[in-house]
Each structure stands twice: as C-alpha cells, then as structure tokens.
C-alpha cells in the first residue's frame, strides 16, 4: 500500500520507495545508534552513516548521526585536539620561546602529567608564599 510517493507499507512495515529502506520509529533511533556506532567500532560520522543508510531511514538521519558522534566520549578520547588552536601567531610564539607543543585529549588530562604537575605547582606557590610571609 503506497502512502506517499516515497513511502509504502508491506506486511506492516513502512519502507522508502527509493533504495527500499525500513523507516524506523523515533524511539528506536538511540538503540540503532548504539549498535551502529558504539558496537561496530566508532567509525565516525561518515562510517556510521554508511552502515545505517544501507537498510534504515529516519528524517534528519545525518544530523542525528553527527550529534551522536560529537557527544561520543570514547571518540573524543582518541581524536586529536582541534587544529583551530594553531594559529600562525601561536606557532611563531612557540618557536621564539622554544616551546614544544604537546597534544593531549581534553577528556583524558591524566595523560598530560607534566602540565598537571606544573598547574598544581603554580596554584600552590601563592598559598605557600602567603603562609610563609604570615609566620
């Protein structure tokens, strides 16, 4: 039974006419995303879309996949930081001050021990200085 030019029902299942994909209900999208992205290897937006697009359809599917991938913590842990923070000015500053830039994940600061230790020292310095001066 044809519902719209691009949709039809066959055996109580809603299909798209183009490419013959199943149209899924909104309540199943999270489960499908969990399987297609999380369980099959965190392939990113394009890879996840390729997996889903073969057999399934829902409105604004590309946007859903993009949002899911951006909020995936595991993907964020393994992706390198954005190159947006590497302007020419910053690169020149690093060179002139002989600074070696280290890349770490924003979600895993434990891997950046040197910076964490330096930050702790910087925070403690004023406190220790004030305590010494007060004595």
UniProtKB/TrEMBL annotation:
GO terms for molecular function: nucleic acid binding. Residues 27-80 form the Integrase zinc-binding domain. It holds the Pfam family Integrase_H2C2. Signal peptide: none annotated. It comes from the Eukaryota. Coiled coil: none annotated. InterPro entries: Integrase_H2C2 (IPR041588), Retrovirus_Pol_polyprotein (IPR050951), RNaseH-like_sf (IPR012337), RNaseH_sf (IPR036397). This is Integrase zinc-binding domain-containing protein.
């Amino acid at each position: 039974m044809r519902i719209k030019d691009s949709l039809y029902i066959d055996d109580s299942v809603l299909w798209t006419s183009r490419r013959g994909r199943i149209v899924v209900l909104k309540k199943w999208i999270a489960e499908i995303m969990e399987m297609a992205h999380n369980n099959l290897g965190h392939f990113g937006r394009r890879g996840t879309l390729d997996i889903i697009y073969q057999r399934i359809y829902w409105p604004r599917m590309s946007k859903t996949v993009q949002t899911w991938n951006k909020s995936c913590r595991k993907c964020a842990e393994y992706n390198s930081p954005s190159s947006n923070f590497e302007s020419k000015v910053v690169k020149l500053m690093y060179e002139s001050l002989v600074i070696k830039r280290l890349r770490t994940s924003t979600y895993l600061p434990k891997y950046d021990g040197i910076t964490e230790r330096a930050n702790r020292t910087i925070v403690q310095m004023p406190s220790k200085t004030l305590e010494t001066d007060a004595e």
